[in-house]
Amino acid sequence: MKYPLYIVLIVLGLTPSHLKAQARISAYxxxxxxxxxxxxxKGNVKTITQTQSPVTNKxxxxxxxxxxxxxxxEYNKQGYLEKRTSFDDYNKPQVATHYAYRSIGEISAIWDxxxxxxxxxxxxxxxxxxEFNPTSKLYIIQDKRIIGGVPRNTRTEMxxxxxxxxxxxxxxxxxxxxxxxxxxxxxxxxxxTEHIIRRRKQVNEMPKLGQAELDAFMDEITxxxxxxxxxxxxxxxxxxxxxxxxxxxxxxxxxxxxxxxxPEWSVDTTAYRNQYDNQSRLLRQxxxxxxxxxxxxxxxxxxxxxxxxxxxxxxxGNLINETKSRQHPVEGYILSDVSRNNHAGKWEERVxxxxxxxxxxxxxxxxxxxxxxxxxxxxxxxxxxGSALVRKIEYYP
Length: 397
Prior knowledge:
Blueprint: H1 5-11, H2 16-29, E1 45-53, E2 71-75, E3 81-87, E4 93-103, E5 106-114, E6 124-133, E7 138-143, E8 146-147, E9 150-151, E10 154-161, E11 166-173, E12 177-186, E13 192-200, H3 211-221, H4 227-261, E14 265-276, E15 282-289, E16 292-301, E17 306-313, E18 319-327, E19 334-343, E20 346-353, E21 361-366, E22 372-378, E23 388-395
Antiparallel strand pairs: 1-2, 1-23, 2-3, 3-4, 4-5, 5-6, 6-7, 6-8, 7-10, 8-9, 10-11, 11-12, 12-13, 13-14, 14-15, 15-16, 16-17, 17-18, 18-19, 19-20, 21-22, 22-23
């Protein structure tokens, strides 16, 4: 017997209100639960390899960073991503990210494999594992990654109670030490009504560039200099490094003294007061921290656009920023907006109109499965702009 989707969602504890709230809570948490990626192409795709053609970056372009356009992806026969390898703009492999599945479409673990011998930025390595208990509806995330030489070693537990419209998130360090506790509640339409977060004081461990990363960075930015210029540049950099170390030590002493004055736990409470129209569309949401108004979101709806006003207030209750925007009624992208900022008692206004922005023009070549294998951006005359993207797609037999 087939059950309606709504009934299935209720059995799983996922009502439409719950799903809306889950998406909004994920945005507040700063991350969302892992979603299994499918290739979305035609045919039974096995691998996709994408590269820029030609490679345009040069060693002197280090300030631009990596474009992220070069990568390869491997998919299983069900169409889910199993491995993604990132390449730099010189097409050298950097990191391979692996995905393991507990069942079809349900991610059980993600881990990174560092492929670069040296990099200008600290890389992450290690595993994040995911476990869901359908009985308790408890989601557990084990983060054993090492980022920039600093181990995370945290366990996060998340639980959403759809019947009572409550979500709880707890984060532990070393598996047993509770360091953060969050609680969310939402109303029937699925908008937040309260967020309470408790944090235990702890020393922040910031990722640092190791000597290998520093050497790689120095080699990259001095690649076009003569040997004498390189030596002079590195000697000056060494002096700056000593001065920076002294400033860091001084800052560390200040941080330690402030840390000693902090309470063991800090609590931050945000309350949301929501108003709706007769179609359960949000008209106004006001946010209060410790009973102090901090921001207001207001909406009005027409067939042509959704009109949104966002207002931010300082600790004294004064309006300091206001943005009025028009959004596409279905797709939600911004059509235009007017922003006002209060700087030292003077209002500055900026107007943006996106309706006349020229959209990029692309030309494509396709394979026998009707998937594109080359994409070129061109101007109105058909002349290519910048690099093309070339994809090699391999299929299962």
